[in-house]
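In response to reviewer comment 3 from the previous cycle, which asked for concrete evidence that the modeling workflow produces usable outputs, we include below a single protein chain processed end to end. The sequence was submitted unchanged, and the resulting structure tokens are shown without manual editing.
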Amino acid sequence: MAALDYAYPWDGLITRFKFSGACELAGPLLVPMVEALQQARAQAGLVVPDVLLPVPLAVGRLRERGYNQAWELARRVGPRLGVPARARWVERVIATPHQIGLGREERMHNLRGAFAVTPAGRAGLAGRSVAILDDVMTTGSTAEELAATLRRAGAAAVQVWVLARTVDRP
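The workflow returned the following structure tokens.
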């Protein structure tokens, strides 16, 4: 589920939120995401998962930014939908380079083995449905790798929720 196209004016706001320390934008950016999720639930029968997991950042990237933008969204979306958000069930164990400008194959190569489920996550995931939450989806490589990691750890079903999805330009 993608709430928005990664296009004007959202792309500028999301970029500020993600790269310029504008954590306060999480609240306003949350509005279209919650609306899209509620609409998907009402009209398309979206099944609310048992738990919400933000895409984790590597320790260095988290230190550089000061916060994980996916967690800032997840911790606000979860209570609005009655879904617990868990930041420590999965971690990024490989500090992958920025994915900007890379194609799908390059992204998949960079992300192989990048995620691991923590002991708390392993105990909590068994047989449960989860939603991965991220700010922007470009090729889907991050979501694909993380979903595979979660399924191997025992998740019964994995959904992907993103604030924005990049759009193909002609």
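Strands lie at 2-5, 51-54, 90-92, 115-117, 129-137, 157-165. We consider this sufficient to address the reviewer's concern, and the full set will be provided in the supplementary archive.
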